[in-house]
Amino acid sequence: MDIKTLQQAPPWDWPPDTGKKLQRILRDRRANPSDRLIAAELAGDLTVINDELADSLLSIVRTPDEPEQLRAKAAISLGPVLEQADIDGFDDPDDVPITERVFRNIRESLQKLFLDTGIPKGVRRKILEASVRAPGDWHRAAVEVAYASGDRDWILTAVFSMSWVPGFDKQILEALKSSDSEIHFEAVRAAGNRELEGAWSHIVSLIKDARTPKPLLIAAIGAVASIRPAQAGTILVDLADSEDEEIAEAADEAIDLAESLSDDEDEDDEDDDEDEDVSKWTN
Known about the structure:
The chain is an all-alpha fold. Helices cover 69% and strands 0% of the residues.
């Protein structure tokens, strides 16, 4: 498969040597610029990324004379593996496609690069958007400054980042009122990820409004399941029968997630009741 064919194919259909092919393209500065952009995008997929590809992506981000668009693409492609490593940890090396050494190097390097204000804004934004997927102590201040900047692009990055960095409920609710469609979209996703109860009525209104654009509707569907899983099924049942396959699939997945979350809540409640009964019996 050539690089453009790979881009159109699902990752599970990629040939076994895809990672090596992407590596060659990323390292070849004489390669077609559009091919290198595609390679940087695909290299972040969890089915192929490894220490070598991660190092190549990070090297591109670090290199000042690489094209700005390529540096930004390489930065954001590091996000998924950072998130997986942060969630799964390294107790079982087979759970994460990069080593702990590379994980720590990426985190530390992205922090240093972000603090370098001489780096182009577009690259710094993607550095922040990638790095927040494994949040560190420095992220809260970075997101605060970005949101308060008054710069539309930085505000968009800040609201995106609020999905992973806690403590911004007020700002997310404020961003839900934005007339900027991209900021509004990211605010809906952030509200769902943070399980923000105060966003419930707004999210439900988006689902019930036939004029809601499909990407925003799908984001709202996911948010409903996270915010009030016990009520999500009732709200989403009609959408699960939608003639639009993407909407129907999103609704089905959200209903399944909501049921799982509701079951977890029920188990937690049962455990609390048992603990209370034992406490009464022993006192």
